[in-house]
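Hypothesis: this fold can be encoded by more than one sequence.
Test: take the structure tokens below, design a sequence, compare later.
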């Protein structure tokens, strides 16, 4: 679904730049097992869309993959470049990818795919994938089996807009003719938080970042009061997450078959001329079959 059809989702998607530093300090990393499942064990050429401050990027680089990271927000991307100066980057959205056709093995998106305009992004993703390549997406979601985690998210409030956006993002891959069967896997992990980082975690949520100043201050004060009741001072506590991962291979129909002139901008006369040269009928070369 297009973010243009969902004004609230589009507004929230633009909220991260002003809270980029808080996002980097407060958001959880992605577990290595999840990154390995998303991309595979063999070294691969990876395009990461919506890379943000590099939470997933760091895990992919540590696994030995050749990563090109992209994000439309210059503030978020600036932090990624600071952490990973050797990783090539592009300031762009998923809807206009500045890479060549069939140039990457895997396209990944961590905590970002629900923000994309899927009608435009999925054909772009299919275009840059090599035959047999895959799109892989992941979200860190709260582990609602932990009672105090449920209470924390009740304080934040249920955000149906974002939840529905995540569900629609998965459905966009499932229903797309550009990709095959969607695989799914989950990985449990923990984030250590303290009195400072829990504020960063909450402040970096899009629906908190877009509140007016008074409402945002009130929400952060409420979270601090909650932490003071449950936490252990600066020793911190552990926040439980489930990393939900999805992966689908690009369909054969998304790639022009070998020898197909699709994508060839030569005229018919030019192609015919080239074909005559290639089969030896219009050259000085005598082709002899020695079989």
């Amino acid at each position: 679904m297009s973010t243009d059809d969902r004004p609230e989702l589009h507004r929230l998607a633009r909220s991260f730049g002003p809270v980029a530093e808080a996002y980097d300090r407060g958001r959880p990393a992605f577990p290595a097992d999840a990154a390995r499942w998303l991309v595979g064990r063999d070294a691969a050429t990876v395009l990461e869309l919506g890379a943000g401050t590099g939470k997933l990027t760091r895990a992919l680089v540590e696994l030995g993959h050749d990563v090109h990271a992209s994000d439309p927000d210059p503030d978020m991307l600036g932090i990624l470049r600071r952490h990973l100066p050797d990783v090539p980057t592009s300031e762009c959205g998923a809807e206009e990818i500045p890479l060549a056709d069939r140039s990457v093995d895997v396209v990944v998106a961590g905590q970002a795919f629900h923000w994309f305009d899927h009608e435009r992004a999925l054909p772009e993703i299919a275009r840059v994938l090599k035959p047999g390549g895959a799109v892989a997406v992941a979200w860190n979601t709260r582990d609602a089996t932990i009672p105090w985690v449920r209470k924390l998210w009740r304080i934040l409030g249920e955000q149906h807009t974002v939840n529905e956006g995540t569900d629609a993002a998965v459905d966009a891959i499932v229903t797309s003719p550009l990709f095959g069967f969607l695989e799914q896997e989950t990985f449990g992990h923990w984030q250590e938080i303290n009195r400072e980082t829990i504020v960063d975690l909450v402040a970096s949520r899009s629906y908190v970042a877009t509140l007016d100043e008074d409402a945002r201050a009130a929400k952060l004060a409420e979270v601090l009061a909650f932490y003071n009741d449950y936490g252990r001072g600066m020793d911190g506590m552990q926040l439980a997450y489930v990393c939900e991962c999805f992966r689908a291979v690009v369909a054969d129909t998304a790639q022009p078959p070998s020898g197909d002139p699709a994508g060839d901008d030569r005229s018919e006369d030019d192609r015919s001329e080239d074909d005559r040269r290639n089969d030896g009928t219009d050259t000085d070369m005598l082709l002899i079959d020695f079989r």
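Confidence is low (pLDDT under 50) at residues 160-164, 257-291. DSSP finds twelve helices and seven strands in the chain.
Hypothesis status: open.
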